[in-house]
Write a structure and sequence with these properties.
- This protein is of the alpha/beta class.
- It has a domain of 211 residues: 3-Layer(bba) Sandwich (FAD/NAD(P)-binding domain).
- 34% of the residues lie in helices and 27% in strands.
- The strands form four sheets. Strands 6-5-14-15-16-13-17 form a seven-stranded mixed β-sheet. The protein has a six-stranded mixed β-sheet with strand order 8-2-1-12-19-18, with helices on one face.
- A hairpin with a 4-residue loop joins strand 15 and strand 16.
- The longest helix is centred in the last third of the chain and has 31 residues.
- The protein starts with 5 loop residues before the first strand and ends in a 12-residue tail after the last helix.
Length: 376
């Protein structure tokens, strides 16, 4: 009888749980270390595109994660004059759903428990070795066939392996929160409103809640203020008072970041999620890429007994799409936030034309329309 392979994972966020579930479904024994004393998810809503939904279905959590979510039919981008700059339709084979982030997290935790995954809280991990070892802050070493760094954009484990190339702070940031839903709110259409370097993103979320994201430049002091400066945002979006007035004191402003790795693995150690490819949320693909990469990681390991070789093959096949999305989400942010305000009308003209080109549509939606390895 072949002995089950064992994985030790640093981080019990979305990436760590997804990787653990994908491995456990293939017969691995898994232990996940979480530095916090309890499992808790920060954030508001989350965009789940078709590639993410397929990945979550393969992980056995799609239904539980999306049971309260709105099925999105249309995504629209409008400028300060109400001019439509981009329109994206969704269909039966090209879906978008928008659950609360906490629903998704709880579904992953429940699935991990169902599979017998050992989640250890108050267990900070500070390093790993290519030989398959995770090192706790206390100095205790956990040996495994595979160790996974899923400890976020500031990953200590990644840096102990010298896998990081760059961690960039970008010139935009986001305040993301949930507001009460009203009967008159659009039920199935996401609308992103642009005015200068500011954006307000309205997202139907559940029957009771909507997800709102406020985006501004890092130098926009009133725009990034917490509690939200409603008067300032109302000046930028005077027709959206019905949304802005529902914003309460809850929320936080986060600066956008981008993580680029020299490689995604070294020996028996691998990085996933934000530790590997943190990116601004402009295309809403960060978590979806995390899920599909975690799923495909387990699939490649299932096909290859030589773990270091399997990890290299996985990165060679899967990383190009992630790199592509990072480039395009950066470009989207620069066009939206860094375009000189005196040329705002020209921006509208350029975007209206560009987003109608089939080539641009393919680049923006390349990941969303990708069928993940391991998703059937």
């Amino acid at each position: 009888m072949v002995k089950a392979r064992h994985a030790e994972i640093a981080g019990a966020g979305l990436g760590g749980l997804a990787a653990g579930i994908a491995l456990a479904q293939r017969g691995w024994s898994v232990r996940i270390h979480e530095r916090s004393p309890e499992l808790r998810m920060f954030g508001a809503g989350i965009w789940l595109w078709e590639n993410g939904l397929r990945s979550l279905a393969a992980l056995g959590v799609e239904q539980a994660a999306t049971k309260r979510a709105r099925r999105i039919e249309t995504l629209v981008v409008k400028d300060q004059h109400g001019r439509v700059l981009m329109r994206r339709e969704f269909g039966a084979r090209d879906r978008m759903m928008l659950p609360p982030r906490a629903d998704l997290y709880n579904a992953l935790i429940a699935r991990a428990d169902e599979l017998g995954i050992d989640i250890v809280t108050s267990s900070p991990i500070v390093a790993a070795t290519p030989h398959g070892e995770l090192v706790q802050e206390s100095g205790k070493v956990h040996k495994a066939d595979l160790v996974v760094a899923a400890d976020g954009a500031f990953s200590r484990v990644r840096e102990s392996l010298l896998l990081g190339r760059r961690v960039d702070y970008l010139d935009e940031g986001y305040t993301r929160l949930l507001i009460p839903r009203r009967d008159e709110d659009p039920p199935t259409e996401i609308t992103e409103y642009w005015n200068g370097s500011r954006r307000l993103l309205y997202d139907p979320c559940t029957d009771d809640l909507n997800y709102v994201c406020l985006c501004c430049h890092v130098d926009d002091e009133r725009g990034r203020r917490i509690p939200v400066d409603k008067e300032s945002w109302l000046e930028s979006f005077p027709t959206l008072g019905g949304i802005i007035e529902r914003i309460d004191a809850v929320g936080r402003w986060d600066r956008a970041m981008r993580v680029t790795c020299r490689a995604w693995s070294r020996g028996r150690a691998v990085v996933v999620g934000d530790a590997a490819h943190a990116q601004p949320p402009n295309l809403g693909q960060g978590a979806n890429l995390t899920f599909q990469n975690a799923l495909s990681l387990a699939a490649y390991l299932d096909e290859e007994q030589d773990i270091p070789r399997a990890l290299l093959r996985w990165e060679k096949k899967e990383r190009p799409l992630t790199d592509h999305v990072q480039r395009w989400t950066d470009l989207y942010g620069r066009v939206a936030s860094a375009w000189p305000e005196r040329f705002a009308s020209r921006r509208s003209q350029v975007l209206e034309l560009a987003t109608k080109l089939p080539w641009v549509d393919r680049q923006l939606n390349k990941a969303a329309r990708h069928i993940p390895v391991g998703a059937g």
